[in-house]
Design brief:
- The protein contains two helices and nine strands, in the order ααβββββββββ.
- With 126 residues, the protein is of the alpha+beta class.
- It has one domain: Immunoglobulin-like (Sandwich).
Length: 126
């Protein structure tokens, strides 16, 4: 009887579903805050593929948290932009199937127009 159950399950799963279960896509998450530790809601976080068409975007919630899931593996640039605070760019992160990348952003308030400083700290989680 267990063999019959396995055969039925194998027939029900399409190759794509099976592949997704074996190699879940990557994700990135983190927090955007001020240099004083206050959360920053509404920060635009963008993830852009460096090798093929692919753009993912979200905004931080009221607690300053964000998450982008179901990202195909590959190299990406990450941009975080906060009104009144400027933006930060990470020129290259490598997203890996089944891995979660942890990236926080800290902003200093400024009245002058700020460029986008390049930062390079990333933390890979599981």
């Amino acid at each position: 009887m267990p063999i019959l159950s396995i055969l039925i399950l194998a027939l029900l799963l399409t190759p794509l579903e099976a592949q997704q279960r074996l190699n879940p896509a990557a994700a990135i998450d983190g927090v955007a805050s001020t240099d004083g530790g206050a959360p920053l809601p509404g920060v635009k976080i963008a993830l852009d593929s460096l090798t093929k068409p692919g753009h993912f975007e979200t905004q931080t919630n009221a607690a300053g948290r964000y998450v982008i899931e179901n990202v195909p593996a590959g190299p990406y640039s990450v941009t975080a932009e906060a009104k009144g605070f400027g933006c930060s760019i990470i020129p290259k992160v490598v997203m890996e199937d089944g891995k979660r990348l942890k990236q926080d952003f800290e902003f200093v308030h400024s009245r002058k127009k700020l460029g986008c400083p390049v930062i390079s700290q990333t933390h890979v989680g599981t």
